[in-house]
Design a protein that fits this description.
Blueprint: H1 5-13, H2 26-42, E1 50-54, H3 60-66, E2 71-76, H4 79-92, E3 96-100, H5 103-109, E4 114-120, H6 129-139, E5 140-151, H7 155-168, H8 185-193, E6 197-208, E7 213-216, E8 223-230
Parallel strand pairs: 1-2, 1-4, 2-3, 4-5
Antiparallel strand pairs: 5-8, 6-7, 6-8
The chain binds S-adenosyl-L-homocysteine.
Length: 232
């Protein structure tokens, strides 16, 4: 199976923190409104859409799309995170179908099923990201949307996302990321193209340490998100 158990253990150990907005996953909470808006704008609204969130963790993104009246399924291989995600639904009073299943298995079971597939900050944690890209493409309906966000691979992204974010500013837990797992936009776009995904929009995700705020746009040197359309 396309999974690194040490990654799953790392996220499982922090699972109780998923909904702590000031905790270990603070940066995901901060970035979330920006990426939801990006997905919503590209997909021309989320209400009534059938959405799959791959590597959903505790459901930060999945819930906010459900809040927009989308029908959301969230999948991950960390059962501890899915438990937290399901518990949180009691608090948010939203509906999300959380399943512990590999994206490749889901693609075999339900190809051409989703209007939107999101896969955020997950590709850099799997042994074979191309296999995840292929599965996400297979799960999307024709003419639908697939979104990936991940970290670019260059000296600037190493300095900002590992040295600064993990060690200097301690914005994310030490050891969250490995430089050699980072993916250049050209590599993501090349791989996606092989499975019928055409890039439509790419945006950088930037952190300003002075204002301590995230913004989207500009260069894709560090963290970035790409919206793909699946060819009919
Ligand atoms: N997508 C969420 C969480 C990102 S953290 C968000 O952006 O808010 C990365 C997530 O990927 C974790 O929840 C981790 O458990 C999950 N993950 C890592 N390897 C995986 C795999 N092989 N299959 C499914 N999920 C995986």
């Amino acid at each position: 199976m396309n999974v690194d158990q040490s990654e799953i253990s790392k996220f499982s150990a922090l699972a109780h923190q998923w909904w702590c907005e000031d905790g270990e996953f603070k940066t995901l909470h901060q970035v979330n409104p920006l990426r939801v808006q990006f997905v919503e704008e590209c997909a021309d609204g989320l209400a009534g859409k059938n959405i799959l969130d791959v590597g959903c963790g505790g459901g930060i993104l999945a819930e906010s799309m459900a809040r927009k009246n989308a029908k959301v399924t969230g999948i991950d291989l960390a059962e501890a995170s899915l438990k937290v995600a399901r518990l949180h639904l009691l608090e948010s009073e939203l509906e999300v179908d959380y399943q512990c299943i590999a994206v490749e298995d889901m693609a075999e079971k339900s190809p051409f099923s989703f209007d939107v597939v999101t896969c955020m900050e997950m590709l850099e944690h799997v042994p074979d990201p191309v296999s995840v890209i292929q599965a996400c493409a297979a799960l999307a309906k024709e003419d639908s949307w697939v979104f990936f966000s991940t970290l670019n691979r260059n000296i600037k992204s190493y300095l900002l996302s590992i040295v600064a974010a993990e060690h200097v500013f301690k914005m994310i837990p030490k050891g969250t990321h490995r430089y050699d797992k980072f993916i250049k936009p050209s590599e993501l776009i090349d791989a996606a193209g092989k499975f019928g995904l055409t890039p439509v929009k790419i945006k950088g995700i930037h952190y300003n340490p002075l204002t301590q705020k995230f913004s989207m746009g500009g260069n894709a040197d560090v963290n970035y998100i790409v919206a793909f359309k699946k060819q009919a």
